[in-house]
Design a protein that fits this description.
The chain has 178 residues and is an alpha/beta fold. Helices cover 33% and strands 20% of the residues. It is built from 6 helices and 8 strands. The chain starts with a strand and ends with a helix.
């Protein structure tokens, strides 16, 4: 799977151990794959929201800045210590591996085969779920979309065609984890 790193930037405190045990006991396992996210602030904000929604892991792929970057660390407000993360060069190889291990692969992307996020309750929540969010301007890579069990989009009613990736992740996470 290319270069992979499991990171805990400091030793686990009692509070973090407690948070991790709560996440582990969560009925469903949720992880996020950040593919080629350009902005360190978006990456940090996604980590912070991932913590809030009980995600257990963040896969940082391609050019996505990791919590080694001070801007990611500043924006995540310490959530890089409660949501484990790894870096992977190739998101397609990673997603293929997770799919082969029984993961439900879901992407957030406006696509010809996407369904409205309001339909999310129909996906298989009994399996661990990987939510993929993509590059701020080019979206989720087509090779990743080919691996997805479901593709969802957020309906847009204004002139703009998309939300900021960190905001979109939070909206989708609310729908997926409820």
């Amino acid at each position: 799977m290319g270069k992979t790193r499991l990171i805990f930037s400091q030793s686990l405190t009692t509070e973090i151990k407690h948070n991790l045990s709560e996440i582990s006991s969560h009925k469903h396992k949720y992880s996020v794959l950040l593919d080629n996210i350009r902005s360190a602030w978006n990456a940090g904000s996604i980590l912070r929201s991932a913590d809030g929604f009980g995600y257990s892991h963040a896969y940082m792929c391609g050019i996505t800045p990791t919590p080694d970057n001070d801007a990611v660390k500043k924006t995540s407000l310490g959530s890089e210590r409660s949501v484990t993360w790894t870096y992977h060069n190739d998101a397609v190889i990673l997603a293929t591996d997770l799919r082969s291990r029984g993961w439900n692969i879901v992407a957030l992307e406006d696509h010809e085969h996407s369904r409205q996020l309001t339909d999310v309750s129909k996906h298989k929540k009994e399996k661990p779920t990987l939510l993929i969010v993509g590059n701020e301007t080019t979206g989720v890579d087509n090779h990743l979309l080919d691996l997805c069990d479901e593709i969802y989009h957020i309906p847009m009613y204004g002139e703009k065609k998309s939300f900021n990736v960190a905001i979109a992740f939070s909206i989708a996470s609310y729908a997926i984890t409820r």
